[in-house]
Design goal:
The chain is of the alpha/beta class. Helices cover 36% and strands 27% of the residues. The chain is built from twelve helices and 14 strands. Adenosine-5'-triphosphate is lined by residues 11, 13, 19, 21, 39, 41-47, 86, 335-337. Residues 2-238 form the ABC transporter domain.
Length: 341
């Protein structure tokens, strides 16, 4: 569906400085797949989407989308894809229903099919109450749902969504995902989206690409990305001193076939806090607690943490995506063109 080779986009930043927004983007995206693009603010996610949807001309490289060249055949590309941008695209003065209808007609769906699709998306995105109002009278989250509805109307073969769920309340987010997955199932739609919600990428995308400073720095399934990390972390607090209990941890790991746990114990007011890094923590933990109990040691608390996509990003870049990604409730951030990150 998408085949990009060394695609790049440079902008002229303040003082004529060259800003590399996208650098050497090379990827192939299979028909019917769901890919999530993750990365901090300014990583180049939106610019990549705007290149692939022909809204921007690349500085270098090439790409074919739905079988057509993005530079040579932009009209062919546009006719086959849907795009929901990061900023609101819905018009201000039209009624929601009229806007959705014009969108269907623009895509050449015909009157009856357009009417059917409008009813479908209105229901899927809970727009029933606002469908006869003008976009300018809607709340931010309602406008966002209209934007997404506009992108979904043509049920395109390939749909790009730039932060579709940012600004939506949890219920609308859940509805949106239900509808996206349903459309995908029904039409075999290929989805390519950006999100700052790591849980969405983790749960729904079969492929996760992590972008930083215009480059793809990881590209795999979420489970593989997480599995490549150091593994799980068990944190125990025990009563009394830890002295010599490392052997109990090693034994519990060995019984489960897990090798080389790393163990760090620190003394606390009422005993010790022990952090164990290892694989398959879920299988080792019961043996560990039993072993400690049999050795007469009292376990006060036990916690198992598995790596998240945020740990993946932290491991790759030394920075947390979660902190940088929390921008939904913050006013629009100034563009950081030319500022070294
Ligand atoms: N029209 C433009 N002119 C100059 N610089 C731009 C322009 N559009 C984007 N940039 C710069 O390109 C870089 C990538 O921006 P982009 O919007 O693609 O980031 P993003 O990953 O979508 O970030 P966010 O998570 O904030 O949406 C940033 O440094 C940005 O400032
Ligand atoms: Mg963006």
């Amino acid at each position: 569906m998408i085949s990009a080779r060394q695609l790049s986009k440079h902008f002229r930043g303040p003082g004529g400085k060259d800003v590399v927004a996208v650098s050497d983007l090379t990827m192939d995206v299979e028909e019917g797949s769901l890919t999530a693009f993750l990365g901090p603010n300014g990583a180049g996610k939106s610019t990549s989407l705007r290149l692939l949807t022909t809204l921007l001309e690349p500085t270098g490289g090439s790409a074919r989308v739905c079988g057509f060249d993005i530079v040579g055949e932009p009209a062919e590309v546009r006719a086959r894809l849907g795009y929901v941008g990061q900023k609101n695209g819905a018009g201000m003065y039209q009624r929601v229903r009229d806007e959705l209808t014009s969108q269907g007609m623009l895509y050449g769906l015909g009157r009856a099919e357009t009417r059917r699709r409008v009813e479908e998306v209105v229901e899927a995105l809970d727009l029933g109450e606002v469908v006869d109002r003008k976009t300018m009278q809607l709340s931010g989250g309602q406008k966002r749902r209209v934007d997404i509805a506009l992108g979904l109307i043509p049920a395109p073969r390939l749909l790009f969504l730039d932060e579709p769920s940012t600004g939506l309340d949890p219920q609308s987010r859940a509805h949106l995902w239900e509808h996206i997955l349903e459309l995908r199932h029904r039409y075999g739609m290929t989805l390519f989206l950006t999100t700052h919600y790591l849980d969405e990428a983790d749960q729904f995308a079969e492929r996760v690409m992590v972008v930083d400073q215009g480059r793809i720095i990881a590209d795999d399934t979420a489970p593989s990305l997480k599995a490549n990390l150091a593994g799980d972390r068990i944190t125990l607090s025990v009563a009394g001193p830890w002295d010599g209990a490392d052997a109990i941890v090693r034994r519990a790991a060995a019984v489960t076939g897990v090798s080389e746990p790393t163990i760090q114990a620190t003394t606390t007011a009422d005993g010790a806090r022990v952090v164990v890094h290892l694989d398959s923590g879920d299988r080792v933990l019961p043996h560990l607690i039993r072993g400690l109990h049999e050795a007469g040691r009292l376990v006060l608390t036990a916690d198992l943490a598995r790596p998240t996509l945020d740990d993946v990003f932290l491991n790759l870049t030394g920075r947390s995506l979660r902190e940088e990604g929390r921008h939904e409730s913050v006013p629009e951030q100034p563009q950081t063109a030319g500022v070294p990150r």
